Amino acid sequence: MPHAGWDDFQFDGIGTRWEIATPLQLEPSLQAALLRLVERFDADWSRFRDDSPVTALAREPGRHEFPAEAGPLGLLYRSLYDVTGGAMTPLIGGSLERLGYGAGYSLQPSGPPLPAPAWDEALKWTGSTVTTKAPVVLDIGAAGKGVLVDLLATELEAAGVSTFIIDASGDLLVRGPEAVPVALEHPYNTTQAIGMLSLTGGALCASAANRRAWGDGLHHVLDGKTGRPVRTAVATWTLAETAMLADALATALFFVPGPELQQSFEFSWLTVFSDGSAAYSSEFEGTLFT
User: Fold this and answer.
1) What residues contact residue 197 under an 8 Å CB cut-off, 6+ apart?
2) CA separation, residue 160 to residues 30, 77, 113, 155 (Å)
3) pLDDT computed for residue 234 by the predictor
4) Residue 190: which H helix or E strand, with range?
5) What sections of the chain are H helices per DSSP?
């Protein structure tokens, strides 16, 4: 991933592999600060940790305080909840666990899919305060990795690092004057690409049903209205200014056509469907192979 001659700082965090490429090696103190940020984010937002506020919300209702990133994250989720008619929701965690994608990673369903509770009946999310009326399993997986990418970028820029590439296992953020060539991974064959694009000064995020799949047709992109995996789209890519927005919209494209989302959000997009067809915005800066 990194440019030739660049330093590549690699680490694991929130269940995935990370790479931060920079022209010069990052100072050890900055590397340590970045790792502390990743650990703090995981401790605050993971539904797989017994000590997280998210797990506390699943045990009993109540009021919990989250870090500052919760404010814009909650507003974005609420907006996408409304645009998708409740299909995209942070309350989908209960169904994910029912289908086997829980803290124990059993990957064995314990029951039928579980529709997510209605937002206004179960959740009040105001700024960094989350209040629940009943135990709920909060899952911010549709946007969380993008949030952390943006937080790491802010940390780098505050330390005076202005040129870098953050690669969170496919979710990319680029800062600096150079364009970065990126291959668009084939949704059914990870060794092949279906296209290419040049990424300059923004975020590219992807979502694919094959990335976290198990059992008989089960995967992590669930429709909150039914609790079932989505069957139409198989992969999406989005380009936006921030990784949080690109990450969230990559999931939203599984539920709502791109042109409809563009009425509310500024981004470009590509969607590949299960029948092999594709749709994309006129602004999408990539080239698809024929």
Assistant:
1) 181, 182, 184, 204, 239, 284, 285, 286, 287
2) 11, 31, 48, 9
3) 85
4) strand 189-199
5) 28-45, 53-59, 70-83, 93-98, 119-122, 144-158, 243-252, 258-261
Reply yes or no on whether the pLDDT at 255 is more than 90: yes
Q: Model pTM?
A: 0.92
User: Which two three-digit tokens encode residue 141?
Assistant: 């997986």
Burial 180-214 (b: 16+ CB within 10 A, else e): bebebbbbeeeeeebbebebeebbbbbbbbebbeb
Distance CA 48, CA 200 (A): 35
Q: Name the token pair of 67.
A: 């870090």
Per-state percent for the chain, helix, strand, coil, to nearest 5: 25, 30, 45
Instruction: Output DSSP code: residue 26.
Output: P
Both structure tokens of 157: 């820029």
Would you say how long the chain is, in residues?
Answer: 290
DSSP 24: S
pLDDT for 7 equals 96
Look-up of token digits 């200014």: 241
**Helices H / strands E in the chain, number of each:** 8, 16
Distance from C-alpha of 237 to C-alpha of 283, rounded to nearest angstrom? 13
Average pLDDT, stretch 84-92? 94
pLDDT digits (tens, 9 = 90+) for 257-268: 999 999 999 999
What six digits make up the tokens of 171? 């979710």
Residue 235 corresponds to which tokens in the numbers above?
């992969």
Beta bridge partners of 235: 208, 272
Q: Which pair of structure tokens corresponds to residue 266?
A: 């500024």
Interior angle at CA 213, CA 211 and CA 215, nearest 5: 165
User: d(Cα 164, Cα 161) in Å, to the nearest integer?
Assistant: 7
| Residue indicated by tokens 């399993």 | 137
Compute φ and ψ for 130, nearest 5 degrees: -115, 125
